[in-house]
Write a structure and sequence with these properties.
Number of domains: 2
Strand content: 5-15%
Distance between the termini: 36 Å
Helix content: 40-55%
Structural class: mainly alpha
Order of helices and strands: EHEHHEHHHHEHEHHHHH
Largest sheet: 3 strands, parallel
Strand order of the largest sheet: 1-2-3
Radius of gyration: 22 Å
Shape: globular
Number of helices: 13
Length: 335
């Protein structure tokens, strides 16, 4: 159960973070090391709002049943990796309508030219796609997600840093226009895992088809690891570990053996097949307990739904209080 201590931050710094429930199928190790692990590691030190941005998902996903399943899957994933819902608000964005209300206010004070610089919008234009209003205004809903809870820190991948920069710009513009209201949050990027490489060497992404699933069965792990792209060096040739896609993942899963593996790379004492086999065994050991915990949670969906509902109720208490201040500042509060 969620407990009443969640209702106060006890003087701790506030973190806001979320995973969009789109492109689902499988959460991968890039999701885990890029953000989810950070939240688990920080949940005792910080006051965390971990939300599922389901309204953001509507920019690309228009299948109701799929979105419902994705939302539930994300919640299960969060809990399975160790997020303690007695310490962390886990909720879905749509349960707190103040997110979209605040986004509208930000729409009204943000110049179009600022949003035209957003990476997602520029990428959609470059692909010659028809860009929805939701995609164009995406950064402002994200700003509302963050600023509504007076966030101090936002964990992001290095490629998402711009979103936090836009959020700070929006907060500063509001503060200059209506008076001091919002904190200016800082991004938190763990440089060593800011971008987890996929099996083809690019950033791990479902859209690239290069993922290693976080809760995969052993046979699926073997298929993914053995497909990691390498150069053509023979086992006895010296190899540069810093340019090897396998070694990049050893840094995450083979930490105790890392000095030995690195030495063997540089001295031409290991081939890529053996390196993959070592990585595979370490991956299996890491993933097996997560996979079993997830199966247990998936079998008790009512418990997961209750956690989401209660988390939303608590998050809305804070959002309601913040919006009361904001409505007063902009001049719509009459009673």
């Amino acid at each position: 159960m969620l407990v009443c201590t969640l209702r106060m931050n006890d003087g701790k710094q506030v973190i806001v973070s979320g995973v969009k429930p789109t492109g689902r199928g499988q959460t991968h190790i890039g999701n885990y090391f890029g953000m989810m692990k950070q939240l688990v590691d920080m949940q005792n030190e910080y006051f965390i709002h971990a939300f599922i941005p389901d309204y953001h998902a509507l920019t690309t996903l228009h299948e109701a049943d799929t979105l419902k399943k994705n939302i539930l899957d994300i919640a299960i994933d969060y809990i399975a990796v160790g997020l303690d819902t007695n310490k962390v608000h886990l909720f879905k964005q749509s349960d707190v309508p103040e997110h979209t209300e605040l986004a509208w206010i930000f729409n009204c004070i943000t110049p179009i030219s600022h949003l035209e610089r957003a990476h997602a919008y520029k990428a959609a234009q470059a692909d010659k796609k028809e860009v929805s209003v939701g995609t164009f205004e995406y950064p402002l809903l994200m700003a509302a997600d963050i600023l509504l809870y007076d966030a101090d820190i936002v964990p992001v991948g290095s490629d998402q840093k711009q979103h936090v920069e836009i959020t700070r710009d929006v907060a500063q513009r509001f503060n200059n226009t209506f008076g001091e209201t919002f904190k200016l949050p800082a991004e938190k990027i763990v440089e060593t895992v800011a971008i987890v490489p996929g099996t083809d060497g690019r950033k791990m992404s479902k859209s690239y088809g290069n993922i290693i699933p976080l809760f995969a069965e052993d046979i699926e792990l073997e298929k993914a690891v053995m497909s990691i792209v390498t150069d053509s060096k023979t086992p006895k040739e010296p190899k540069d570990p810093e340019t090897c896609n396998i070694f990049a993942l050893h840094k995450l899963f083979s930490t105790e053996e890392l000095p030995t593996i690195e030495k063997r790379y540089r001295e031409g004492e290991i081939g890529y097949k053996e390196s993959k086999e070592i990585l595979l065994e370490n991956l299996k050991s890491f993933i097996q307990p997560l996979r079993e915990r997830r199966k247990t949670l998936a079998a008790d969906q009512d418990r997961v739904l209750d956690i989401l509902k209660r988390g939303g109720e608590i998050a809305r208490e804070q959002a309601t209080e913040k919006m009361r201040e904001i409505r007063e500042k902009v001049g719509v509060a009459l009673y």
